[in-house]
Amino acid sequence: MAWREERVVNVLVTAATKYGATGEIARALGEVLTERGLDVRVIAPEQVEEIDGYDAVVLGSAVYAGHWLKPARELVDERATPWRPGRCGCFPAARSATRPSPRKTLSTSRGSCGLPRPESIGCSPASW
Question: Residue 17 domain-assigned?
Fold first, then answer.
């Protein structure tokens, strides 16, 4: 049986938060990924200097009035090129409403949340 060196996956988890709840989600996600053997760094989008050094990136944001917060949008806009297909995930965090909001349709490449559509930067979130 040949010995095989296992490489630890290096993951960045970053989330824009207004009151702290989305940051708590990011920290909890980071803890779970760490427990599963991944090397995880959880920081705010404003602190991200580069994403090239990570094997995977998880980006989250609080959502207000159907829009992600500015720090998350800016991170995507500034770092749009290095996002690699299959290596990133996104999560929106929004307070649930008592009644559903109408669907928004946009004819541009941007999604209704104000960020580029996940497929345009290689992301495959569970829901967008």
Answer: yes
Nearest to 9 by CA among 48, 75, 60, 53: 53
Number of domains in the chain: 1
CA angle 50, 80, 87 (to 5 degrees): 75
Model confidence pLDDT, tens digit, residues 33-54: 999 999 999 999 999 988 888 9
Q: Is residue 1 part of a domain?
A: no
Q: Is residue 57 classed exposed, middle or buried when 0-12, 13-18 and 19+ CB atoms within 10 A define those classes?
A: buried
Phi, psi for 47 (deg, rounded to 5): -95, -10
Q: What is the CATH number of the domain that holds 94?
A: 3.40.50.360
pLDDT of 16 strictly over 80: yes
Q: Which amino acid is at 56?
A: A
Q: What is the four-CA torsion angle of 106, 108, 26, 50, rounded to 10 degrees? A: -170
pLDDT digits (tens, 9 = 90+) for 106-125: 233 344 444 445 455 455 44
